[in-house]
Design brief:
With 103 residues, this protein is mainly α. The chain has a domain at 29-70. The protein is 70% helix and 0% strand. It contains 4 helices and no strands. The longest helix has 46 residues, at 25-70. The chain is rod-shaped, with a radius of gyration of 36 Å. It starts with 5 loop residues before the first helix and ends with a helix. The relative contact order is 0.04.
């Protein structure tokens, strides 16, 4: 734990007991335990967020590569109707040539 051996931990506890006294040591140990638990939760959350962002960036790169492989000229793909010159469905209707002559 934190690169501290058992003898070093024992020395730290004895010094803390001498400095803080037996009455305040449990309160401080409880506060320290809560702080360490919160630190672990936050560090785990940050690690998980970084991993998720890296995974999303990797997925986006794969998607872009696949799109470039499927559409090497770009995304401006013409439909068969565009190539034949037929009107698009979104264009307003035009009267036929015969109807224009009658009017």
């Amino acid at each position: 734990m934190f690169g501290i051996g058992s003898t070093e931990l024992l020395v730290i506890l004895v010094v803390a007991l001498i400095i803080l006294g037996p009455s305040k040591l449990p309160e401080i140990a409880k506060s320290l335990g809560k702080a360490l638990g919160e630190f672990r939760r936050v560090s785990t959350d940050v690690k998980r967020t970084i991993e998720m962002e890296a995974e999303q960036a990797e997925q986006k790169a794969k998607t872009e590569q696949t799109r470039k492989e499927l559409f090497p000229q770009g995304t401006n793909v013409e439909t068969p109707q565009d190539q034949t010159g037929a009107t698009k469905a979104n264009d307003p209707a035009q009267p036929a040539a015969e109807d224009r002559d009658k009017a």
